[in-house]
Amino acid sequence: MSHSRPPNVAVIIPARYASTRLPKKLLLAETGKPLIRHTYEAASRATLPRSVTVACDHPEIFEAVRKFGGNVVMTDPNAPSGTDRIAEVAAGMNDVDIIVNIQGDGPELSGEAIDLVIRMLVGNPDAVMSTLATPIRNRQQLEDPACVKAVFDKNGKALYFSRSVIPRPRNWVGDLLTTEPPLFYQHVGMYAYRRDFLLALTKLPQSPLEKAESLEQLRVLDNGYEIIVGVVDEPTFGIDTPEDYRKFSARAKEQVPGE
Q1: Which of the 8 DSSP states describes residue 149?
Q2: Residue 47 in contact with residue 6, Cβ under 8 Å?
Q3: pLDDT tens for residues 47-96?
Q4: Are 183 and 176 in contact (CB under 8 A)?
Q5: What CATH number did the domain enclosing 172 receive?
Q6: Which of 47, 65, 79, 159 is 20 to 30 A (C-alpha) from 175?
Q7: Which range marks the domain in which residue 91 is found?
Q8: For the chain, how many structural domains are there in total?
Q9: What tens digit of pLDDT does each residue of 201-213 get?
C-alpha cells in the first residue's frame, strides 16, 4: 500500500438470515426500517470507507437491502462463518486495501468508531487486523460469557480475548470496576483487515484456542499475527434477543423527532 494515496477502504456487513436466538432478526422492522438498514446507515456515517456492501445468504435479506437502495451481494448460504462470507465478497474487490467487517446486528455503531478501527490499522503497519474494545463497569457484564473480554498491552497490541473474566483478580476489591485507566474491556465485534490477510485467514485451520472459546480472532493470535485494539467509550451491543431488539426499537423511536 503506497503512502502517496489514502487506502481504499470497503465496509462489508455479513448478514445471516437464520439467527438462533432471534429468528430473522435482520428483517425486524418495528422502527419502520429493517434492522439491517439501521446498521447499513450507521456504517454509511463513517468518513473513511468508500463503500458499504451487505454480504447476505438469503433472497429476503437481498430484497430488503435492494429496496432501500443499498449495495448487496448474495454469498454462499453454506459459508461457515461471517468472515468466510466477507472474504467471498472481498475476493472480487481487487482495488481495495482494507476491509471493515461490521456485524449486521450493530445498528448503533458510531461513524467515529468505524473510522477509528480503520485509523488503528493504517497507523500500525505490523498489524494485520484491528478491532475495538470498550470499558466494562459492571460486574454482571464482566462475569457473562457472552461478553467477550479483551486484554491488550500498553501499545494496544492484543494479548488475548476470552469469555472468561480476564484479567482475573486474585483478590476482588470493589473499585476494580471504576479504576482509570480501566482494567476490564469488552471486545466490540468490529474488525478491519488488510485485504490480502483476510483472504489468507479463511484458509488457516481453526486453532485449538479458537475452538475452545468459539472466538475466531484467536486463530489470528494463535498463528503469531498482530491485532491492534482501539478503545471507544461507547457500549455498542449487538442485538441477540427479543428484549435487546425491544430496547433498541424504543431508543430508535425516541430519536426520530430530532433527526
Answers
A1: E
A2: no
A3: 999 999 999 999 999 999 999 999 999 999 998 888 999 999 999 999 99
A4: yes
A5: 3.90.550.10
A6: 159
A7: 9-242
A8: 1
A9: 999 999 999 999 9
